[in-house]
Amino acid sequence: MNTRPVATFARTSARVLGRARGRIADAAWFGVSVLIAVGLVGSQLRSATSSLAEVADTAAAAAACLALWWRRRWPVPIAVVLGVLTCLTPAAQVPALVCLGTVASRRPVRPLIAVALVLVAATVTRYVDELSVPRFTLKISSERGDGNGAVNSALLLVIVIAWGLYIRARRQLVASLRERADKAEAEQRLRIEQARSGERARIAREMHDVLAHRISLISLQAGALQVSRRQDDAVAESAALIRTSAHQALEDLRGVIGVLRAGENETSPLVPQPTLADLRRLVEESVRAGMAVSLHEDPGDAYGDVPAHVGRTAYRVVQEGLTNARKHAPGAAVTVRASLGTGLDVEVRNPRGTARADLASPIPGAGQGLVGLSERARLVGGRLEYGWTAKDEFRLAAWLPLRE
Ligand SMILES: Nc1ncnc2c1ncn2[C@@H]1O[C@H](COP(=O)(O)OP(=O)(O)OP(=O)(O)O)[C@@H](O)[C@H]1O
Ligand SMILES: [Mg+2]
């Protein structure tokens, strides 16, 4: 099942929800600041000394509340301005604290320390008699000398900074978790794609090697039958061979289709799995089909030491070699050798074809057989060579290691 749209939907929803939560928090802080400002300004206006003070106090309070809308964009400058404003009107205190929280949660430590120092200085200024900062409100005067108020203000600053830092740590944690989840998801996707393409290549190789061999045998037999001038017995024998080969092709096809149908995570064996011991049978099949093939095996008594996957690869090399000889050098005598040395050596040789070209129509080929074989040999740590020799023979040879 493709889980990508679900994951994308979940991520988009989380982002939308996060943004909505931010907007609600903005509105809440704005509302709280306005309420407190209205309360403070209202009570202070009653005791204001002049109409200029009234206007300035109200304007400063309104500006402080409004500035909250831009606190995410420019948290540091706004926090500094609001900090200075707290010296002039207590209505700026809540917005200044909110902005301090934003700086703590979104900016590095240095700007945070700078903003905190501005707010500490503003707090000290509010409580120190000697400093004659022009104030619009009369209420300020009653704060002077109030020890509890100073302590509370300092405490509030510490709490807000701690809260902002906590939010920042949580946000960083969520971001790193999300990043790890994204990375794991991408890696998983890559692994699945690699496994799929590897599996497709494996199946394609298997289909090529198995079916090309069997079907080329059938084709050869059909060609021979077509031009046969011999008596009925020979025709019957060829027909029987065609039938057997066709049956085997169907069996092989069933095995390959079994692989295609197997579950994605299943590393099902490609049944039936040939081994080196089947080389003789393979050669006999070709001989029965009319090819002149001689097999020279030099296994000593160590054939059993050859790992199954190496034996299978060697079998496929000989199989493709015989198929190619049948296709590209009809009538030529073929020599197959298998010997054990530093590794397993297999070789298929044949001179140029001698059969009449009109004996049968040429068997089609995709030109992929030797390329696929090279890949097979490389996969087991071996190498494959092929081409025309100085003796004008086509030579296909593989060296396969006995250990990984
Ligand atoms: N035994 C051989 N004798 C002469 N020529 C050969 C022999 N084996 C291979 N060749 C040449 O090498 C070419 C590549 O062989 P390869 O097995 O890769 O492709 P193919 O047999 O044409 O097609 P496919 O194997 O995909 O069905 C052939 O087209 C042929 O020209
Ligand atoms: Mg071929």
Automatic annotation (TrEMBL):
One Pfam short name: HisKA_3
Cellular component GO terms held in the UniProt record: membrane
Gene3D superfamilies: 1.20.5.1930, Histidine kinase-like ATPase, C-terminal domain
GO molecular function annotation: ATP binding; phosphorelay sensor kinase activity; protein dimerization activity
Taxonomy, superkingdom: Bacteria
Protein name according to UniProt: histidine kinase
Residue ranges occupied by any Signal transduction histidine kinase subgroup 3 dimerisation and phosphoacceptor domain in the UniProt entry: 199-263
Translocase among keywords: no
Membrane-crossing residue ranges in chain numbering: 27-45, 76-100, 112-129, 149-167
Keywords attached to this entry: ATP-binding, Kinase, Membrane, Nucleotide-binding, Phosphoprotein, Transferase, Transmembrane, Transmembrane helix, Two-component regulatory system
EC number: 2.7.13.3
Catalytic activity: ATP + protein L-histidine = ADP + protein N-phospho-L-histidine
